[in-house]
Amino acid sequence: MTFLVTGATGSVGRHVVARLRDAGAQVRAVTRNPGTADFPADVEVVAGDLDRPETLEPALAGIERAYLFPHDDATAFAELAKKAGVRRIVVLSSASAGIEYKREHNSHSHAWHLAVERAVEDSGIACTAIRPGSFASNSLLWADAIRSGSAVRSPYASAAQAPVHEADIAAVAATALLEDGHTGAKYTLSGPASITLAEQVRTIGEALGRETSFEELTPEQGRAELLRNLPEDIVDMLLGYWAEAVDQPEPVLPTVEQVTGRPARTFAQWAADHAADFR
């Protein structure tokens, strides 16, 4: 059986490929630029673009199970997958798709990710949704400041998240692809512990072996700072999450361990894995 992985060169997709390969599965990795994908020789790398669904028809030939990176035209992918005989799709979604996490600041994310999930479900293909909360990799927003030795400038120093390592997101996705019994599941994921933004910055410093500092801004100052690098809708969503997490910390969930049998990686482990990104 060959497994299809879309978004294969992304932070989660690359780990999905690795997990499937480690399990002895044959993997077909879809990427816009196969020449720069840099996968092991036993991974079949093919050209394909979710923005151009017609390019995916050859990639789907002979595939029974697929990992779908979320995309605006998930319906087109699901239709092509059904036509090709795909029997199972594991879709990367977001915790915001859950009604219990819907807020004003993430209403667009809620609707968008829910639509992606439903596009697959409505196709009749067996579907599992992977719904991570805060990605540990969001802290890469601070990489420039930390590399330069400057303070990380942000509002809401005491916002408490439970950041999840992208490798754990991939591990849950790969488990749902490889094993039976996950059809219809919507797995909301978190890291194993609550940690504030200021503590995250300090933890990155510990991984680097040097001190790092956090300068707390007002929400207005923080918004202006973030808008230098991010779109307005993303900035407003982040600020909304952080503001809420000051008084209502992001829940710590056991899902990663329940699904994979292994504890979720800590933020300190993520920082150690990504120390080079901050040097």
Automatic annotation (TrEMBL):
Give the NAD(P)-binding domain ranges. 7-179
Protein name, per record:
Uncharacterized conserved protein YbjT, contains NAD(P)-binding and DUF2867 domains
The organism's taxonomic lineage, starting at the top: Bacteria, Bacillati, Actinomycetota, Actinomycetes, Pseudonocardiales
